[in-house]
UniProtKB/TrEMBL annotation, chains A, B:
PANTHER family: AMINE OXIDASE, COPPER AMINE OXIDASE
Record-annotated active site: 319, 407
Entry comment on modification after translation: Topaquinone (TPQ) is generated by copper-dependent autoxidation of a specific tyrosyl residue.
Gene source species: Stephania cephalantha
Protein name per the record: Amine oxidase
Amino acid sequence: MFLYMSTPLFISLTFFTLVSATIHLHPLDPLNAMELTRVQTIVERSHPGSAFHYIGLAEPDKSSILSWLATSLNQSSTTPSPRQAMTIIRHHNQTHEIIVDLLTTTIIYNRVYTGFGYPSLSGEEVTMAMKLPLTYPPFVISVRKRGLKLDQVVCQPYPIGWFGVQGKREVKLACYYLEGTVNMHARPLEGISVVVDLEEMKISKYFDRVRVAVPKAEGTEYRLSQMRPSTVRATMVNRITVVQPDGPGFKIDGHIIRWANWNFHLGFDVRAGVIISLASIFDVQKQEFRRVLYKAYVSELFVPYMDPTEEWYYKTFFDAGEFGFGLCTLPLEPLRDCPANAVFIDAFYAGQDGKPLQIPNALCVFERYAGDVMWRHTEIGIPGEFIREVRPEVTLVVRMVSTVGNYDYIIDWEFKQSGSIVAKVGLSGILEVKGTAYTHTDKIKEEAFGTLLAENTLGIYHDHFLSYHIDLDIDGEANSFVKNKLVTKRVKDNSSLRKSYWTVEKVTARTESEANIKVGAEAAELVVVNPNKKTKLGNPIGYRLIPRSSPASSLLSDDDYPQIRGAFTKYDLWVTPYNNSEKWVAGLYADQSRGDDTIATWSERDREIENKDIVLWYTVGFHHVPSQEDFPVMPTLSGGFELRPTNFFEANPVLNSRVPMPVNWPNCTSPHK
Amino acid sequence: MFLYMSTPLFISLTFFTLVSATIHLHPLDPLNAMELTRVQTIVERSHPGSAFHYIGLAEPDKSSILSWLATSLNQSSTTPSPRQAMTIIRHHNQTHEIIVDLLTTTIIYNRVYTGFGYPSLSGEEVTMAMKLPLTYPPFVISVRKRGLKLDQVVCQPYPIGWFGVQGKREVKLACYYLEGTVNMHARPLEGISVVVDLEEMKISKYFDRVRVAVPKAEGTEYRLSQMRPSTVRATMVNRITVVQPDGPGFKIDGHIIRWANWNFHLGFDVRAGVIISLASIFDVQKQEFRRVLYKAYVSELFVPYMDPTEEWYYKTFFDAGEFGFGLCTLPLEPLRDCPANAVFIDAFYAGQDGKPLQIPNALCVFERYAGDVMWRHTEIGIPGEFIREVRPEVTLVVRMVSTVGNYDYIIDWEFKQSGSIVAKVGLSGILEVKGTAYTHTDKIKEEAFGTLLAENTLGIYHDHFLSYHIDLDIDGEANSFVKNKLVTKRVKDNSSLRKSYWTVEKVTARTESEANIKVGAEAAELVVVNPNKKTKLGNPIGYRLIPRSSPASSLLSDDDYPQIRGAFTKYDLWVTPYNNSEKWVAGLYADQSRGDDTIATWSERDREIENKDIVLWYTVGFHHVPSQEDFPVMPTLSGGFELRPTNFFEANPVLNSRVPMPVNWPNCTSPHK
């Protein structure tokens, strides 16, 4: 399910002595390498020997961001932006929350966290933990008993979850076998439980409960260099690429991206990964930029497995909170992860020692032309006229890939000129499999909790729940969430030959509990409106959320421990009032959390959300029943949603968009030809 | 909602004297121009003066197709294919069904149809009907009374539906005003009812019930040539195109398309439009082509409007059955409707006189590279190793655009190397609007049945229901439909610290009634399996259907006339046993149909569907609440579904796919630069 960056292969320490001063930054810019270093220096001074589990931007409240923006716009010189860093450290076995002001270089907040749960694991401690079994005599014996080679064993750390009992800061290790493959995920050593105390950094519990056949290496390879090239025409396609003779059409100014009619801020956080902020769209009719989205990011990624047996029951992972969705962001491969016209952006985060680390090519930005049509019409109904107007669709995509151990999540944010923002996630990578004695389904006599994918290999049933934090500010902060229910009306008065029709009943959610929805349970449009503004015609100005894949809420019982922790999955959609401290839908301290800091607990207050600054939390969910096609590496499965303007504009905003000049592609030559 | 090709602007009569003889055709090939001519000649001889409402392939039964294929494969010379044409004519006010054998050039079947409903309208009769009001004195007076210019009026034909009373073969006309725009759809003349008797070709009823303001022309223009070019950067994007230095990678052999690991037959029918048949995928492991899809096409497109008032209640259109989804296929525009690397294909159909007409560029085929990832994994969990394997996703797309009057439907069939077939529909074009006195929503005091889109302009609520006929033949004809229900299990014996998990319960539908589903009502995978074959591991071989947009079944009452006719919309999914005569989900004679020949009536027999040759009928539905953005032309809204292999292959079928060689794009030059 997850795995840390255990090697510094592409992570070079960088000390940016030449980086522009903090004073010129946008208040939403992620901490740069110099700022990270500054935080480390200050905190290390007061708390020597700290382990840094998080350093990120202590994001100013929305009001101060907005007033900074207003001031910046009104003045020729840039106003210094508020810059504070939030850090979570472990120091003397305690969790500290420290806020450092980067302008005054002082600690302005410092408290010991005494609640439930622990901070995200650091990459370094995980790397250390992984190695412990290899020198732990009982484990060495277990490996020998199985007739395996110790130098071919690799272990991976797994958070232990919470099952009703207070736990120390521990992880479990699951171990895998390489020999003959690099796909260790496909070769688990079942039956062994290794618990590591992370504070002591030693194995605290060890069981070798049962011996299970290790799946074969055969058929698990996925490296091109090691594949027997296919001998059939069937697997080769002709070369194809995207060409922009004038170069990309977007501009990157610091962390601000400007493209076509969109402006937005592109951030990065070691926990959330990519963050889209302050997205505004230019309204041609009004001749001004209008606010759409204050912020959006993946707040949590919950992946519970559905096997209650001893070595698997606890596998109920919170990839953002336990590991860091940003920490697991790995460098994108040019020409394969992103097309030829992509521009790449690096990201920075702090290692366990607090010093800055760089992820090269962490994000890419590119214009996408997939051959689709933005709008069209052919008119042949007017005698003597033949009218055909077609506008090709070119969009802008921001991409990140987070590889949480075995799984790869391709996260796209796509901006359309027509005003839509589309969030997509592609699931690829390698399944978490379980070793089994079974070699054929005929032999399965009791519940197996998964699909037999190869001999001795079960793909365990599981879910992927990505909770998107979506803070729309439609023409301002004060917004309402409206269900446009489509309701059937009977014609009862014989006024029509029709007996029925449907119409729209607008139901505004007044408080949080009224907004919780299992999407699809009833026919309804889900709209965020600005109730204080209307179009010239009087329609409420809004954006609606359209699922692009089947909603999937949790099937776990409400009282089950992982469900208590991942309670956001009870509904596909929640709406809360904006609260700068409510960032992580399953809680800030997700490791061994107990569900006391989740959206379900926040929402118990049933706060007012009508005509307030509101945040939507939408879950893109997948119930994953593995199939043999997913083995040994899984073809991408996609899901997502669209945020689409609905009476936001007075009319089609791309009505008078120009068509890009054609490119005469046969003029291209290629050195490969 | 619809409109005929009223001008022959791009329709040139073609007489193919050089066309290869019928004997060399594939039995699923659409009738070519010579064959159409032959049918016309034969039928005209026996039924002089006939009006041809349909000529298409009388498709042989599946068994004879399959035996032809088997014979063809086993012999070096091609076996003559069975070639018969089905034609529906009106002759002496009667509907005749005639089957012509093209090899023997004889009529082998001829009966008068005496049931309910009428054949599809012909383009020519509609064109004639449209002109009638302009010389009809009461109408001329109505126009004059409204202070409008007669030469700026254009009328459009609308099927009258069925509302409990037997009707003659009539259409209603709705009329529109041009002056100052070519977007007549935006300027309805409300309050006038014109009924045309199509047999007499004269106006049979006329009412001028009420006068309503005609919406303004201002703001309705959508032609690039007439637009004031936008003066802001916001609407311009840089040039972008797709390049394939070695040309397209697919081969077109007659109507067979071969690309990567896919083979399929690409057909066209004047009623259905594009038809995909005999899609097989090469299994690298088995080194053979395996059957996936026998046939798929849009069987019906039902568009009911939700305004029960006098001039609108009847607007409940069956675009395929009343008009012809293929007949409304209009030529695609190179570089805009399809990318630069597309190959275009013409289509042929018969006019009302039975003579062949050509639709140039009716279909396009292209390889799509949208910058997406087919599969990927980065592995950093092995000490000393950094592994990153990424395969870009290149797919093959077949596209058609059908413009049914005001609306444009972009129909895509996308083939993925990983085995998926994705059906997409993009909705664009122009809304069907209603004239109204309202100029602001504040003035709306009673139910308006729509959204105020512009002054005096209501976008009436409506649905789009596209029923896809999907005849999967997974490794052969005998298949079963299985709901893989995901059901929550409680852990009751304290054997685990978990309290719950979900597992899969496979429920095979034994008869038709067991397969009807409102998709999303329960967590389930929808799978078609071949119960007679299993993978080596013993998993049932199958394909599953994954919605790519929210399912939307009908909200009309069961007893409402349009719902009786469009009963397929009661469920998102139906499954029937293969029956060559069950092609049109809402009936063969859709015009004024009474619902006695729909899938709901076929399914009343509750036939067995387990381990049978089965057909899925899945509806891609949209409840459309118009928004101002949809005016005066609508940005594309997309929906669809994916057919994805699930234990069809023994493993990931694109594991050893090669990566196309990179193209060094900066080497491109362009004459436009």
